[in-house]
Write a structure and sequence with these properties.
elongated; mainly alpha; single chain; 3 helical TM bundles of succinate and fumarate reductases
Length: 124
């Protein structure tokens, strides 16, 4: 501490995370529009039952699209949550714990989502 100010470098949101947040925000909109069109407008009568969904997931493009959507949404959401938590000005130690926790939550959520998509694909 010098002159009453803490001069320790603070972990924060750098240009890389900021750009990733902006990019994933844009991609969320693009993939959401594709998701809505493909899942709700192209499918005749819509996906009304579990059997319809399982049959629909047999098209190899659909699971890929859903997994991409999952990864983009989870990444954007957790970077956004981290930005909100940065506004609380946590200490560097707490921020490291937040970062670790968000990475674990993100990887776990994405792994579970991919597993779920693969289970649905294998039911067909």
């Amino acid at each position: 501490m010098r002159d009453g100010f803490d001069v320790t470098p603070r972990l924060g949101e750098g240009a890389g995370l900021w750009f990733l947040k902006i990019l994933t925000g844009f991609l969320v909109i693009v993939v959401l529009i594709i998701h809505l069109i493909v899942n709700h407008l192209i499918v005749e009568g819509g996906l009304l039952t579990y059997a319809d969904v399982v049959h629909y997931y047999q098209n190899p493009i659909i699971p890929i699209m859903e997994i991409a959507f999952l990864i983009i949404v989870v990444t954007h959401a957790l970077i956004g949550l981290r930005s909100v938590l940065l506004d609380l000005q946590p200490s560097n130690k707490v921020l490291r714990l937040i970062n670790y926790g968000l990475v674990v939550l993100g990887v776990g959520s994405i792994a579970y989502g991919i597993w779920l998509v693969l289970v649905i694909v294998n039911r067909g």
